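User: For a benchmark we're assembling, each entry needs the component sequences followed by a predicted structure for the full assembly. Here are entry 17's components. Please fill in the structure.
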Amino acid sequence: MQATNCFHCGDPCDRQLITFDKKSFCCAGCKTVYEIFSTNDLSHYYELQAAAGSTPDVIEGKYDFLDNEEIIAKLTEFNDGNIQIINLYIPTIHCSSCIWILENLNKLNKNVTNSQVDFPKKTIRITYKQEGFSLKELVLLLAKIGYEPYISLEDFDGKKKVSDKTLIYKLGVAGFAFGNVMFLSFPEYFDLNSSATSGGEYWLNKYQDLFRWMMFIFSLPVMFYAGWDYFVSAYKGLWAKLLNIDVPIALGILVLFLRSTYDIAFNLGSGFFDSLTGLVFFLLLGKFFQQRTYSFLSFERDYKSYFPIAITRLNLKGKEETVPVQEIEKGDRILIRNEEMIPVDGTLVYGNAQIDYSFVSGESEPVSKNIGEQVFAGGKQLNGVIEMIALKSVSQSYLTQLWGNAIFKTDKVTAFQNLTDSIGKRFTIAVLSIAFIATAFWLFYDPSKAMNVFTAVLIIACPCAIALASPFTLGNMLRIFGKKKFYIKDTQTIERLAKIDTAIFDKTGTITTTQKSTAHYEGMPLTPDEESILKNTIRASNHPLSRSLYDLLKEQNIITLDEYEEHIGKGLESSKDDINMKIGSANFVGKGTSENLLDTSIYISSNNAYRGRYVFQNQYRDGLSSVFQNMSETLNLAILSGDNEGEKERLEALLPKLTPLYFNQKPETKLEFIKSLQDQGKKVLMVGDGLNDAGALAQSNVGIAISENINVFSPACDAILDATKFQQLYSYILASKKAIRIIKMSFILSLLYNCVGLYFAITGQLEPVIAAILMPLSSISIVIFTTLMTNLIGRKLP
Amino acid sequence: MSVIYVLLGISLVVAIIFFVAFIVSVKQGQYDDSYTPSVRMLFDDELVKPKKTSTKEFKQEKIQLNKQV
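Assistant: Structure for entry 17:
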């Protein structure tokens, strides 16, 4: 039974074993996919990578909404009535076999004319003929071979993400101009003060003006296109009465350009065009390096990424019709199929509801609801079809109204002054005062040199190296963290993370695992026969609690039960020989009321006599105690849970003494809690996982989402931490503090370069070649310094 | 020495050609996905390979996927 793995998906075949074509499969779905591939000459799929497939999981009627013309029009990229092009997101894409099979879709269906996979983004772009085919059939075809696309409300809104390429263009222009200007400066470098009279190279002097004016022409696009953002930013800063780092940079670029133009126009020298273009090129390179996008992650998800596009509504005549979710109104009767998401709050009117709120709360155990009870948006129905009456519209539901809060419209970036800008103010004042003092001195001593000195100071003091320190340090840290499965949205988040003094944790799904739960048995011991019946009874049940308990119980022989009955919403009943067992809720087994309402338990009775119960407990993440112990040394900690107090005692035993624990917190109260801490001047880190933490994550200074599987959706946040790295959270915070120290060290280093440069500038001996050497030298040494130091930190990180 | 004009002109033209090529390639999205093409180039003609023997045993009609589901 063991050691057999499915030929298609690689999962162990312990529940079910299907042998087909001398190969074993774990389920009928996997077998069907294999059959499809092999009959269509596509079995090469398995040669590229063994066990590459994923189990198909198609639910009847799930994609009926794709027949709706309006929805098709919104989803497709191109649609002329004959040919349609669509971009679909397929989370299961994971290997080269996936690329191969998806790009050979036309072998499975002739109507597909072209399909192209973008592996890092996990998307596929399909062109197909509409005649005799449809989007729905295409999606079903994909789902049938195990590549079910994920279509959410977000796609429907039609906000196509256009990646901004202007920085690359600007970098290209600056690099192009920099290279050519350097090339044109070569004669000047090698033959510095020569002129026809002092016996310099004749032809260089003859064509000197041509070279110089060509440099001027090359610097124009750098000034007015590539470097233009610095002028805009400096102007905006001054307008807001802020001296940001772009002010001295813009001043430096402007003075470089004007002085150089003046120099060549009056034949005073070759100008500083090489320094000018080089400066802009390096600055843009820093900006480019700072960007690190994880194309497979999104940090901006709201409830729309989770919600379906359309839902089945039952109209007055009792007929089913598909409508977009936004059109659901109060009082509509809607139908939720198995595995479908509930889009609005409502009252259950038909069916057995087993609702999984893990998207919302991180709680993995589904909740049973009876007819007449309220169900909330964001839950996923797990047990057949239900019908409900909507009580609110989508945007006003319990969960979704959280996004009406103003915090989701403010940008954390604007509210935060980064380290570089905070030094910018002092720097600008210092540079300007040195420039004026030096000019005043020279006006008195030798007025002919005064203007020369003034411009030279502004040129050489241009804080290129300072402006590069932060992008390269933090950009490199971002990459290092990314390799350690800590994915951070932008470099500024690292700066904010380094300033954290309070850390708030959500409980379920954040400090507990969702993958495994533990259960212990309370009550009279079961006989071996009873244990065997128990295991065999729950084997047949699909209830999530049964599944968990099945995995926890020890191996038993498979026996045939005489009787087996599943009472939905209550429990299981089975008998073998003379033993009759009931497994399920306290009421069902005749125990009367539950002992403790806060626990999740399975009760067991044998021949109508209560035997005992299995109590399920949250499994806390490994090393939770030590993580909290370490963090409590420098940070204030608290737990903010949406759950009841059932786990309070266990938590108190695990966590450092006097860690505040707050239970029964609603999404809004979590947000308010963070806000009140911030009003006290605290810098708050929020660690959460579910949509109910979304408000708190947005409000906090840094919001980190913990994710068991980074391909599955996590709420909008500043960083995503892979759950396996939870123990390293504190060392990551410490590493970001170290990164800030590196930036400060680089500031000192670049100030030293500035002092050397200022010496030349103040004494009036700044030659273009000195600027041309000093400027790249300081920039490159800063880049090398920060890269080496951050790699050193990275190596120490576990 | 007026050949310098020709040389400068040539160097400029070459530089601009490369610059334009760069801009065009960025615009076409050639740098958007830097991974998939590296995999794609490795599988090309496997489909024309002669059929393997294993499928004989359960020879049956092709599964019709484009039928209405």
